[in-house]
Amino acid sequence: MxxxxxxxxxxxxQERKFLLALVKKxxxxxxxxxxxxxxxHKKNVVWAAICKEYNSLCTTGPRSTAMLKHFYFNIKHRSxxxxxxxxxxxxxxxxSISSNDASKDGCDGNTDxxxxxxxxxxxxxxxxxxxxxxxxxxxSDIRMESVEINSKGNSGSDFSDDSEEDEPELEVGTDLWAxxxxxxxxxxxxxxxxxxxxxxxDKLYKHLKEGHSVVTGNKDENYTEVIYLEDPIESQxxxxxxxxxxxxxxxxxxxxxxxxISDFGLYxxxxxxxxxxxxxxxxxxxxxxxxxxxxxxxxxxDNSMEVDRGKDPIxxxxxxxxxxxxxxxxxxxxxxxxxxxxxxxxxxxKKRTKLKNDAAHENIIENFGKxxxxxxxxxxxxxxNTKLQKDIVDLIMTARLQTMKNRLxxxxxxxxxxxxxxxxxxx
Length: 427
What we know:
mainly alpha; 2% strand; 2 domains; 15 helices; 3 strands
């Protein structure tokens, strides 16, 4: 179980006087009736300063700001009730004095009976407001003090109903004498403004009401203090949204030549997939060589590419190719042994090799098709582009026919009815 917090000790009379003395310095701020944010902030700052000074000088124990504020407003509430009771006692004491005068004129008056009535009236009123004192000797002191004040200040004066209604009544503040300092039997000094006044209850109340209105007001016993912690949220202006018309998407215009080149790349990709890997690799090399040569012819020779004693490597390659092509091909078989070997090879059925078109090989061919498309798009002239496409198709179709010839025998070619002149070697 959680330990209960230790209750703070009650305020004694010395602490009460000390707190009232501190509050007196800032009374114009604490008792202000403004409820704006700046006023509330000032009050909080003042109470924080009072609490700091109180705890630094008072040795009874630390007090929080909330405790000091609660105790101060309790004092105000109780003092207001005490003042109202004191006014009733003053009215009753005046009635007893008038009854004594009437007894002198021939009416019977009993002072002891009047004193008992006043005492019972006082107890009844204090019990009503829960202000019964613990010390019974205070009752006689309060009664004697009220009679003494009335005998000094109000003796010989007549009070009417109108004067009772005009008499101000304190709402806030401590005891009446907390605002005045007694200088002599007849004169008092206001502790708020320092003005000297006669010791007259009506004048003192009037001075508090006119000069210090913060301690007077209506007769409501209970009141509610409203504290605005934050500023009200300012209403934001509604933003009018303008209707925005959607903008049309700008699609890039595809030129007819670009579409044609893209379709050509797909076409050669599909043709290369049916060829063996070695033939496909050789064709890729020949196609790239063909495109690069056409590019160099269009842009002109580059001196930085000259090697091997000033000769272009492409020219060297062309010379080597011409040497190989110039060699005579001996297509006739002279010896009988070669004829027999040729017959044996023709009689033995050739096994058809399975093409391994796996995913990796297909991916390579597709990327090569995209590369060819990119190279062809760099040619600004359509006639050059068209000529390159024709040459590339010739290379691929020639390789396909040669591959088909290698797979088929002479008898199979005759059965299929295919012309032999179509099967030519790749140059």
